Amino acid sequence: MLAHRQRRLFTPEEYLVLEERSETKSEYHRGEIFSMTGGSMEHNELVRNVTVELAGTLRDSACRVFVADMRLHVPAHDLFTYPDVYVVCGPPRRMERRRDTLVDATLIVEVLSPSTEVYDRGEKFLFYQTLPSFREYLLVSQERILVERHTRRQPGEWLSVEFSGSTQTFELASIGVTIRIDEIYRGVEL
Asked: What is the pLDDT of residues 161-185, one digit of tens each?
């Protein structure tokens, strides 16, 4: 007879307390806590390049750029996560009684990693779609020059476009920014 090992589920409050005390970041989904691993050099360079491009362009706008240290809560799916980069237009909405967790995002950028690519493209994207303010999702490959832009046209309808030419530019309509692919991949060895 096999014994079933029951895993411990945590409340959101327990997770947040553990996260405050931890030296490493973790994500939370419906009671489970998932440790985050460090990214590759290419991953970090791509995150930096996207952040620099967005922050420079949005400096004098009503939009603010956040990086992987600012947690995002997706209430509909009891998810706490750290997107690589995200943008909030208008006053950022914080989780009640939390200064380190936001509950809205206009644009979310994820740099794809082999260990998270399926999740980032699938379930996580579906979770993000429940945020009312969420308008655009950008997936950046670290394996080759490839950026995928998913734009909300109306509730439940998304338009997906791929950009793979190093000299291409594309618009992020949700925040009114045009970006060149070569700026995203500047200095990144593939």
From this structure: 999 998 999 999 999 999 999 999 9
Q: Which residues contact 77 (CB under 8 A, 6 or more apart)?
A: 29, 30, 127, 130
Q: How many domains does the chain have?
A: 1
| CB-facing half-sphere around the CA of 31: CA atoms within 13 A | 4
* Residue type at 136 in one-letter notation: E
Q: Is residue 31 part of a domain?
A: no
Pairwise CA distance, residues 139 & 112, whole Å: 6
Query: Residue 110's closest CA among 166, 154, 72?
Result: 72
Task: Examine residue 114 and state whether it is found in any structural domain, yes or no.
Answer: yes
Report the predicted TM-score, pTM, of the whole model to 2 decimal places: 0.94
Distance CA 121, CA 118 (A): 5
Name 157's bridge partners.
Answer: 154
- Rounded to 10 degrees, the C-alpha dihedral 111/117/123/128 comes to 0
